[in-house]
Structures are given as C-alpha cells and as structure tokens.
C-alpha cells in the first residue's frame, strides 16, 4: 500500500550515513577554501559581488571571505558562523578556527568509517581539548608587570598578525602604528575611539598615526582657518530651521505681512540661539547636524569656526578627544563643559582638505590616516589594521602571550598524544585524531610557503621532545627556527578561542545524524 | 457505492466528484495511519537518551537549526501528512504542559502503534485494542504512583533537584557543563518559586543569549539584563544604589490623543510656543530629579534636547526599552510603571543595588546589568556560547531544565530514570494481563523506549 509522504514536496530528508557525509563534505569544502590564506605566505582571494556594480573585494581575512559567500550546506553555515564569532570576539584567527574545525571533522570521518560511534569521538575530543588548554595555560608567558617587555610583546604580536596580510611588506611601520594607537586607549576595548581615514594616493608607507584628531570635513566659508587655544563646543542640535517641536503645530495667518512677521520671528529665534552659543565664550563650534547659511554667517562675523555635519561617531570621538560635553541646549553656559585643544587648523592630505585638532587634553582618541594605491588596497589595509587593533586591545586586558609559528600547536599535540597513550578504550583513537588535527595547522603554513611540510613537521616534532623547546616553522628561511629569537608571538586569548570554538563546532556537526531540509520558500528571483 | 438507484430505477449520485478524492477504507486506512505514525517516531528515535544524536534542520529561509529537543525537531519539520501532524501536536502539548519528555512521548506513541499493527494483523478489532491499551495504561499509572518516591528539598538542600535537572541535560549537546547549567537552572527556579503555593511563574525567568565567550561563562544574574545602553554616550556607566524611575511616556512635548491642530497666527504666539517647549523639557527632567531618581528607564524615546538636559543634570537614562522587559524591571526592582510625569512620586521608584554597562568583544555591543535588586523575584540566565546555533540550543535546553525543576516543585515525587521506570511498569502490566481476559496481547508495549536508549549507546 502506498504510504503518503509525511513531508511536503521538495522537502528532503537525509539519514545516517548520507547525512553525515553531507555535513562532512560541506564543512571540509569550506575549510579547504580558506586553507590557502593561512600563514605568512598565505594568498588572498578576490570576491566579486553579484549585486549591481559588480564590486570587487580583495582579502585575506577568513571571516570576510566566508561572510560574502552564499552557502546552501547547513554544516558549512555552522563554520561560517564560528568564523564570524571569532572575528567579533577577538578579531584574528578567523581562518585558523575554520581550518582546525575542518581538520577535526576530517579525522572524525576516518574514525566513523572505522565504526567508532560519534559520541565516543566527541567525548574523546572533549578530553583532548581540556588537556590542550591546560598545557597552554602552563606554558603561557605574562609580562604585565614589566612595561618594556609588555610593549615588545605587543609589537611582536602585531607583527605576527600583520605578517599574513597585505601590510606585511611594511609590517614594522604598521605594527608600531597599531601598538601606539592601542596604548593610547588605556585599556578600553572600545575601538571606536580610533578613527581610520582612508585617502587614496601615495603608498602604504605614507600612512601615519596622528596624535591629535582629524576630521574629514571642510571649514565653512569666511571663517578663520587656524585657531590657537581653541575652546570647543560640541553640539547635537538642529541649526537649520528651529522646528517647533509641539506636534501638530502649524502657522496659519491671514495676510502677507503676518507671514513676514513670523519669518522675522524665526530669524530672531535663530539669532538668539547663536547669541547663546557665542555667550559660552568659545571659538569653535562643531555640530552634528546641518548649520544653515544664516547662522554660519553669524558665526563667521563673531570669528567662530563652525563645522557642520560631523557624523555621529565623529561627535562621540570628538567628545572623547577634547573632553567636552555633547550639548543640545544652551541655556546654562557656565555649567557646560567645553572641550579644549591647542591648535585647530586645516591641512591637506593628498588632494583633500581636512581639519586637524592637535594638543588635545585627554588623548584617548587618535586617528590613523591610511594612504595607498587604490581603494582595494585601502580597504584591505583597513581590515588588516582593524584585526591587529582588535587583537592588541584584547591583549592589553588579558596580557598572556604565547610563541607563534606553529609552536603552540606542536606543544598541544605532544601533550594530547601522551594523554591518548594513557587512556584505555576507543576514546584514545579520538584523542589521537585530535592531536593529528592540531598538527595540520603548521603543516598548512608550511604548505602555503611551498616548503616540504612532511619533512619540516617531522623535524619540528623531534625538536619538541626536548625540554624547553621554542621551535616553530620559520617560513623565511624555510626551516625549523627559534620563535623566541625571531620574535614571533601570538595572544593567548586568540589561541584559546580558536581551540574552543573549533572543538565546539566539530562537536555540533558530529552529533547530527539526520538532515531535514524544508521546501525553499517560493519567491521571485531577485537578481 | 457512490451511485444509488431510487424507486424508479434512476441513478443518482451520493458523493460528488469521485475522481478527485481518494478514499482508503478499513484495514488499509489503519495501516497507512500507523505507518505514518511509525515514520515520525523512527525519526525521533535516535535522539533519545544521553548518547542520542541531534538533527540538523534547514528552514525555508535557509536558517539552520541543530537540536535534540523533540518538540523543536517536529515543529521545524514541516510535515504534510495528517497523522504526522497529530504526532507533532502531541509533542507540542507535552512541551507546553510539562516541558520535557517531548522525544520520549513520540517514541512511545510510535511503539504502541507498532504493537497495535501486529495485533491488527491477527484480526483483533481496533476498538478492543484501544480498550486494552486504556486498561493497561491505568494499571501502569497506578504502578508508577506506587513506586514513586517523595523527596524533600529546600533552599539549602537542592541536590536532588540538581540531579534531576542533570538527567534532562545529559542528552543535549550542553552536557559538557551539565552540572553548572543544572545548578543555574535550579537556583533560578528557586529564586522565583512561590513555595507556599507550590508554583513557579516561568515568565519571571528571562533567558538571554549573547554570542561570544564560552559556554562555561553562562551565569545567573539576580537581576535583569537589558540589550540597550545609556542614551547619551557621556552618561556615567556605573550607578550604585540606583533609584529607578520607570516611565512609559516619552521625553517629548506632549501629544494629545485627539486629532488637533495648533494654529500660530501672530509673532507673540510663536515666541510663547518656543518658550513653552523649552519649559516642557525642563519640567520633565526636574520632576524626575525632584523625586530623587538616579536612573530613568523609558519605554519610548528622548528628544535630543531632553537627552542633553538629562546628561547635564546628571541623570542617566535608557530609552526604547521593550514592554516585557519593562515589566520585568518593575517586578525585580519593586517599582511601579508610571505613565505620566505628574504621577511620579518617591514611592513609585524601584531600587537596585548596582546598575552597570558592560561591553563585549571588539564590537560596540553593550548591555546593561541591573543587579542586586530589591525584590529578587526576577532573574536572568545569561548564556554565552561559541556560535549562534549553540546558543539557541542552550536556550532550549535550559528551558527544559527549568520546566523540570518547576514540575518538581509542583509535585515533588520522583522515579528513577534510565529505563527502570518503564521496565517496572511493563512487568506490572504483564502480571495484570494474566488476570484480565482479552488484554493478553498488550504486554510488551512498555519495553520499547528503554530498548532505544540501549541501542543508541552501543554502536
């Protein structure tokens, strides 16, 4: 007899073997996609959008690549998600986390084919992850006490992060830039205070960090182009028409003269407002919204520099930089806190004019100006710098540091191997597999550099059997090198997040034994 | 059949449009129904127990859900067949009433249907089978009551509650931290439980998730978390001993609720209007300060001028807070929700020990924590996790654990798990079968669920 389908048409169900295979294949495909971007000799990818304009993005950052892909396979979506979360949480390691998760699943597939139950594999992986994390905690180095050493740690971390991106040619320069910017933040992880301005033209080497603040706006006409000892009022108020805020109000008159009177009253209102502002004793007025011509003229007459349309974030940063309060009412000039800075002037970068504030009181915010050959270069430079800044700001809070270049992976792999030997039962196979997956990261780095990865990794493993070894892969010389000497370091937080996220994602996908896909919602083809 | 002949021999049709309907009768119909029910149960079978596996479901919009919870799987599954829809309803009602056991109930229903199929094949009438089942279930129920044990619990003796919650969590992906999560669930429930009436209002427990951090960072907050930040970036980020004014009126000039128009026809009126506007904002902020509030939480928004005034007068404020959260804040801090500024009085203010703003990760994500509230009857379980799907699944698991804890408070008798209760009932039913004629065949029904747990384990 016929059994009615219990699902709607076009919904499909995959069970058991086929479901597992579908998830593995999807996940491994994603991991293989981003594998070649790992490490100092990793390559970038060009992404072309299908939207209007066919925009092109060139990038090395794992999260950016994955975010731009349209993916159908649900297991692959899990991986894309962990990459995104890694980006949001720590900023770097987005490619490593996907590669590690892919490797864990590849090893798991072999185990499943050997008839080991996924649950066993999962509990084995968990034990291995615990053990790996513990060993990392033991070997971590914390230089918080010593400011000199801490700063050099930060430099090393910045260099390592930037070495796989487009900025690697000038990594000294940019590492210095990033570390300076982050030190100014004084421990806050709010990267909004660091403004990044992109101006095409020049080359990457011409980028610089400005201790003051640069606003990408022009000074109004007829106003002084240079002010010393500026008192600044930062405001967020409508200087166009001072609208009557009572809802439903409208002007209803019966003769033209009355209209003229009311218009005059509006003007008076604006004039009063400007007077009140001037009464604060300022010589610079920055507004988030528009300033119409009339008030602009009044300001120019009074010799006050007026800047309009500074965007919302700019206003917050200005508040931070100059120490002023963001005002919206002007009735109490005595109690409003004014911002202060030594010099405001107009400068030129490339072909554009910008306003430069220097000598600010609280130097928490700063500006990085990026110059470069084209928009693509600038975009990628901004992303890379952003990654470096994120990692550094996280490290300022959690100052534990590890050596890089594949060293932590080998250390973890060795410990996990030992654990496997001590564990009875089928779990030990899973733990061994975990250790093999960990070794895949140095292998990938070596592969991307065109070196003989099997030879190198074997050498590395032998080195690690000695006590106190600091060996890792040195891609520049193409052999095993001393990471402490070469100054290659990574932040502990990044490594820990990579380890835990990848293990979690692998667990989630391993636990699935059936995939049920609902019918895709019928919608018109949007192109 | 569909055609009948009247007294003159003329044919007339009883059922219209015979070609477009299909009709299954008798044994065929029953077999088809049972097959559909079995199919659904077969899907859920592999999720049962601590070694049960999860299912990955892809919704029509491409959203992926990975879950172990029976009710969720069935809801997202988009079934067409009517009997399968019945099973979905079954699981859903189990979820609403009890909260846990949603997979087990469907598996058991499937097992009963399977056994019934064999009896149908032997020619036993379905009604007799149904009656037999009724009788057997009554016997099993009585037996369960007999073997159930009451246990004592209290605010200091929560071990048995925690263990029961741990059983619930052991079949989910979060079983790595089941001890911690079980403790969190039990503490949350005990905090809001009404022990005299033996009831728990689960609405008072808010479950919030934020991506980032690790699962181990999940914590119970004796207070409320708000996914909002202070309305002005320069407001203080930490307030101790806060007195909270909870408002549902916006800091904007008043809008009368009837349609109206205000006509301005002279300059003086224009100016008066202007002065009035300013006075409004001033009044509003002043009133809040007069009653002694140190934090304002508002359901609607603030006008820019009002915002600035608030910051100037040192009165931190939060805007655009949702209605549900506002109620929770009112309950937790013991304040009253005030609809108009005129009605603000010092008694209506809520009290909280600490209000702070916390930021996460490298994005601008900020949340407000309102802690050490006067009345700790509203709590929040704040879940962190590696990725979005993990957080969703953790939310579902915590919900299950909370329901289990609630059920225990309502009725504090337990039976031992791991299939022992099922086997015990099965033995009782078999014994009874010998006494009642006609019920003989109905014995082996209860053996199946524990079988599945066993099968899932040894692979």
UniProtKB/TrEMBL annotation, chain A:
> Which Gene Ontology terms cover its molecular function?
ATP binding; ATP hydrolysis activity; ATP-dependent protein folding chaperone; unfolded protein binding
One of this protein's GO BP terms? protein folding
Where is it localised? Cytoplasm
Keyword flag Nucleotide-binding: yes
Checking InterPro entries in the record gives:
Chap_CCT_beta, Chaperone_TCP-1, Chaperonin_TCP-1_CS, Cpn60/GroEL/TCP-1, GroEL-like_apical_dom_sf, GROEL-like_equatorial_sf, TCP-1-like_intermed_sf, TCP-1_chaperonin
What's in the keyword line of the UniProt record? ATP-binding, Chaperone, Cytoplasm, Nucleotide-binding
- SUPFAM superfamilies associated with the record: GroEL apical domain-like, GroEL equatorial domain-like, GroEL-intermediate domain like
Would I find Transmembrane helix among this entry's keywords? no
Task: Report the GO terms under cellular component.
Answer: chaperonin-containing T-complex; cytoplasmic stress granule
What is the superkingdom listed in this entry's lineage?
Eukaryota
Protein role: Molecular chaperone; assists the folding of proteins upon ATP hydrolysis. Known to play a role, in vitro, in the folding of actin and tubulin.
Name the protein family: Belongs to the TCP-1 chaperonin family.
Protein name as it appears in the record: T-complex protein 1 subunit beta
Q: From what organism does this protein derive?
A: Eucalyptus grandis
UniProtKB/TrEMBL annotation, chain B:
InterPro entries in the cross-refs = Chap_CCT_epsi, Chaperone_TCP-1, Chaperonin_TCP-1_CS, Cpn60/GroEL/TCP-1, GroEL-like_apical_dom_sf, GROEL-like_equatorial_sf, TCP-1-like_intermed_sf, TCP-1_chaperonin
What are the alphabetically sorted keywords of the record?
ATP-binding, Chaperone, Cytoplasm, Nucleotide-binding
What's one GO-annotated cellular component? chaperonin-containing T-complex
The family database entries (Gene3D superfamilies) matched by this protein are listed as: GroEL, GroEL-like equatorial domain, TCP-1-like chaperonin intermediate domain
PROSITE patterns tied to this protein = TCP1_1 (PS00750), TCP1_2 (PS00751), TCP1_3 (PS00995)
**Cellular location of this protein?**
Cytoplasm
Does the keyword Chaperone feature in the UniProt annotation?
yes
Q: Name one Pfam family in it.
A: Cpn60_TCP1
GO MF, one term, reads: ATP-dependent protein folding chaperone
Q: Under what name is this protein listed?
A: T-complex protein 1 subunit epsilon
This chain's source organism reads: Eucalyptus grandis (Flooded gum)
